[in-house]
Amino acid sequence: MLDPSGVRRTTRTRLEREDPTPVTSRNASPNASPASRRDRRALERAERTRIRGRARPTQRPAWRSPFALVSLGAVALAAVVIVALAAKPPDLEGDLLIPGTTYPADLVDGESLGRADAPVVIEIWGDFQCPVCGRLAKEQLPRLVADFVLDGRLRIVSRDIDILGLGAQNESEGAAVAARCAGAQGRYWQFHDLLFWNQGGENLGAFRSERLALMADRLGLDRAAWGACRADPAQAAAIRAETAAAAARGIASTPTLSINGQLSVGLPRDYDQLAAVIASIAAAGSGASSAP
Question: What's CA 152's distance to the chain center, in Å?
């Protein structure tokens, strides 16, 4: 077809409009080379369009890979095992740790330890389920006895209270009653140590009735007398009264120490510092000093 200027104009067919690939390229055999640079470029563009239009395979999220699923399963199983072990109460037989601290009978007076005229008196408010109280009993109490109680400079008074007990079977109160009843047979401090050396988490059964009875047997207590003492409501009432007295003094956490009347909350940061305070008060024969 000629346009008015006399130049032949090619009319594009419907097929050409729908397929932009040059006619030369469409009709050429697959192995034939394009006739011109323009045709080659058109083929390259068509090939790129074809490649981009291919459906790409969907990638599986990393968290759904077999390795990730196995790892997540292992972590979940480990968490279940840890929780189960933490919640399992200690066995009744064969698991009691026996502390080696000894207490001269002439220095023991119920829940007090040391000479009545000692120039320094430390009162310790503690809960037998309190782990920091356990550290105090295991790490510092034996040294205090050896360094200051035996030579008459220090008297220690244990104030057993209940701030961690829960439920009808209150293990904090039950342990405190059991220790007091051991004290009725002159064995309070030995029972005190057995409790702290054999903590097993709070309210998980470490101080359930059967295990307390096992401790009494290990100490050779008169079980009938000890059991009758535990059954006396007055013993639990005494623990509740001690707890109320502590609250009245503003004691809300354990351990709390009172050194000649001055309160110090928590575990002393350093035994040597505590020892220096005791030695200073004892040397001065005074009841006033700074708590550690």
Answer: 39
